[in-house]
Amino acid sequence: MKEIKSIAVLASRFAMLPGVGRKTALRYAHAVIDMSEQEVDAFCDALRDVKNSVRLCSVCGNYTDGEVCDLCASRPSKQVCVVAYPKDVAAIEKTGAFDGVYHVLHGTLSPMNNRTPDDLNIKSLMARLDGTDEVIVATNPDVEGEATAVYLARLIKPLGIKVTRIAQGISMGSELEYADSVTLSQALDRRTSL
Amino acid sequence: MKEIKSIAVLASRFAMLPGVGRKTALRYAHAVIDMSEQEVDAFCDALRDVKNSVRLCSVCGNYTDGEVCDLCASRPSKQVCVVAYPKDVAAIEKTGAFDGVYHVLHGTLSPMNNRTPDDLNIKSLMARLDGTDEVIVATNPDVEGEATAVYLARLIKPLGIKVTRIAQGISMGSELEYADSVTLSQALDRRTSL
Lengths: 194, 194
Description:
The longest helix of chain A is centred in the first third of the chain and has 17 residues, at 37-53.
């Protein structure tokens, strides 16, 4: 059976989304056929709008639709919580256990994938630490996350700023994004000095 | 934390796809932010292209980008296999066990959901049955699928055309112990000679 080209093309686009395989992508493409023209137009507009309006906060690197994100603009920066990705900010915010500011690295150190400190949002972290008492490193508790934490501790501790790490209440090998709020807030409470 | 509106809007669009919940939709939206502008444009084009180029075959109701689909144009119509949705055609084609033509109803009879025969692609089925020996009803083996099969049999058998139903029983690789009792009793009722 010959595949219809436009369906195959759209499916290959859906397959670029995280966790979407060939079969799911095809299912999504079929669902688009059943949408009204208005819905497809609105879908396109939403895609373009996200690409056009969302940028990175010039202070912390999190997503924002302004120059500086709401959190950086409104919260005290005594405590800076360093995370790998924007989705991790959302996860920690959901716990309500932290009221400082964040800093998003957009990755972790990974010699295997050729990600060095220069590839991460570290320069702007160093530039914002005036008046900061504590940097909490909340990268994932895996090899790359640990390496990133150790690297940051070596960099920041000499400035006389306390560097802490979220407690390993989160099981090794799991991901922040999927941790339940209780586990995550306990991990924040029990953070230890590096 | 204030949500960024354009991200929330895009996520709500993704959540319209089958099987996509709030969390997955947000994950997809974040992935779009990380795409290049070219990729987002290509995504949009693919969405619009599917909506513009894909229509329903005037004979069988399956998806096509022409007037009549490849299967209707190239295969003998002695046997017509009736299915509920286009994805079912793909599933049967993958087996390679059928070389006749299909007819897609775009749904099944469902008094609960107010779907009557007029809402299904039945008129064009009746119009194509000249020269057909057998109609195989391959709707799902659930209440709605069964009701649709019985309805079609009553409609088509008076025309002197054989109407059959795909076999129901224990599926390959499953275990008797875990089969539900309806399936198991039907498998016993419909036992075949060895």
